Amino acid sequence: MQRAPLITRRSLLGAAAAGAGAIVASCAGVSGGSRPDSGTPRRVVVVGAGLAGLTAAVDLRAAGWDVTVLEARDRVGGRVLTLHEPFSGDQYAEAGGESIDDNHTAIQALARHYRLALAHRPADKLARAAVFAKGERSSLGALLEQNGSATTIGYLGFDQALIDVAGGLDPEHPERAAHAAELDSRSLEDFLGDQHLTDAAAFLVRTDYRGNFNAELSGVSLLFAAQQAVVDENLSEAGVETMRIAGGNQRLPEAMAKALGQRVVLGAPVTRISQQSWGVRLTAGSRSYDAAHVVLAVPPPPLRRITFDPALPAAVADMVDHLRLGSALKVSRQYTRRFWIPEGLSGFTVTDLPFAVGWEATDSQPVTASGPGILTQFVTGDAAAVGAKLADRKRITSFGAQLDRVYPEGVASATSRRSTMAWADEPFTGGGYAVFAPGQFAPFWPVLRAPHGRMWFAGEHTETLAGYMESAVRSGQRVAGSIGRPPPT
Ligand SMILES: Cc1cc2nc3c(=O)[nH]c(=O)nc-3n(C[C@H](O)[C@H](O)[C@H](O)COP(=O)(O)OP(=O)(O)OC[C@H]3O[C@@H](n4cnc5c(N)ncnc54)[C@H](O)[C@@H]3O)c2cc1C
Q1: What is the mean pLDDT of each run of 10 residues along the chain (489 residues)?
Q2: pLDDT tens string 147-182
């Protein structure tokens, strides 16, 4: 994440089935008996049809493997989900993965490959953000000017302080840094306390990083945060959260699944994985699938419901059992007119209310200044954990009332077309994106990056650049590259 000042998804500045008939229950790789079929040595089964699993599948197929993708849900995309309902006028909102940064080159290349256009968001969306704090609305500039330059310097200097504390760690092997255990034992909140920032700067840092990691800073390993700061620094200077896929991000996984055709099996939750001398056998429903390798492109919470035979080694089981996804939810509401535009605002919102951050979902869609638009609230950390427990209607009402406090002038144009998605409630996801708590990063990282017998982990949680759609794509490419080519026939 290119961490300029302020949040969006992550930085303050800073299914439909995939095509008619494309995805049907497939018999590829099915094995009923105890002996593997003759195609097994050249077959890989990918578990999970999110961006990581689909990318791995596409690349493995290109390398010559016979690929089967088993997906638990009845749609592809995982945490990429575009909501067209209940919105009118062809407008839509992203329930999960939303913005693409300029330096997210792997996902941009994939979009180009599938002939999907990228639609740009306004470059000045943060400059025109509203800040609502202590019951008053002002601008980001006004907040940064509090206490002279101390707030700006403290806020903008926080990233550099993280890079300094990282002490040149190798993001590929953060666990090998001389001070890895010490950093891992501390939280990002501990580190923030050391910086003695102004209240306004600390507010901005907390808001920024809470969105970044989907968790309160006390629940984030300092080693993980330092690694992410180094990864950011190594990325080329570029705009953050600059674009989305035109027509909805979900078009990308759908296009990939369409290209894979009957190799993608929907409604096939894997419940058992057994490693054999000849390969791996997976059970999904009443079927079993044999393969030379399995790619587990599934976040840790749903992995806990899979039985592994033999049991996973203790270090791997520990990671699966304890690595969690932070809490993230969204609430989106359509307005009959974009009331914020005539006021010189972008719809981007930073608050000290529980929802903390919001933006315009439609700012990369064909909109008019006086026409309808959608505002999305992005709620993370403790507020999202509490909000996830509410029924959808109640959640929509509760967070909607907070937005009305920020924009009372918008109440008259608010419609009843609203949606919400709490990812912690989703049994095949379990949260927003992975967050390594203090003490977890050094032991879990090498486990996530290594193959275990014939099993490979993929997904955003396994990448040096963590937590993005780009991360998922990169992880699929990395694992497919490591598996290489099938044996000759
Ligand atoms: C609210 C929110 C906002 C976000 N905002 C952004 C953003 O602005 N920009 C950005 O780049 N990223 C964003 N992200 C992150 C991004 O969406 C994810 O990093 C990425 O989509 C993860 O992809 P994945 O393939 O690793 O995992 P997933 O998409 O979770 O895919 C895993 C798949 O495995 C399936 N599965 C689970 N269990 C089983 C099983 N037993 N058998 C078979 N299949 C199974 C699931 O159904 C799912 O389809 C956001 C995420 C959230 C939740």
Answers
A1: 40 35 34 74 98 98 98 98 97 98 96 98 94 94 86 92 95 96 98 95 95 96 97 85 97 98 98 95 96 98 97 97 97 98 96 97 95 98 97 98 98 98 96 97 98 96 97 98 95
A2: 788 998 999 899 999 999 999 999 999 999 999 999
* Gap between the Cα atoms of 414 and 428, Å rounded: 32
Distance in Å, CA 429 to ligand 1 centroid:
7
**Any atom of ligand 1 within 6 Å of the Cβ of 298:** yes
Helix axes 188-195, 199-213, angle to 10 degrees: 160
Q: Is the CB of residue 431 below 6 angstroms from any atom belonging to ligand 1? A: no
Strand ordering across the sheet containing 373-380: 136-139, 130-133, 349-351, 357-360, 373-380, 328-335, 414-422
3-state secondary structure of 418: strand
Q: Give the tens place of pLDDT for each residue, 236-274.
A: 778 889 999 999 999 999 999 999 999 999 999 999 999
User: 198 CA to middle of ligand 1, Å?
Assistant: 36
Q: How far, in Å, CA of 225 to CA of 221, rounded?
A: 6
Asked whether 388 lines ligand 1 (CB < 6 A), one says no
Q: Which atom of ligand 1 sits closest to the CA of residue 325? A: 53
Distance CA 264, CA 84 (A): 24
Q: Where are the alpha helices (DSSP H) in 355-425?
A: 381-388, 392-406
Cβ–ligand 1 distance for 474 under 6 Å, the answer: no
Q: What is the per-residue DSSP string for 170-194?
A: -TT-GGGSTTHHHHHHSBHHHHHHH
Domain annotation for the chain: domains and CATH numbers = 40-78+248-321+438-483 (3.50.50.60)
CA of residue 300 to ligand 1 center, whole Å = 11
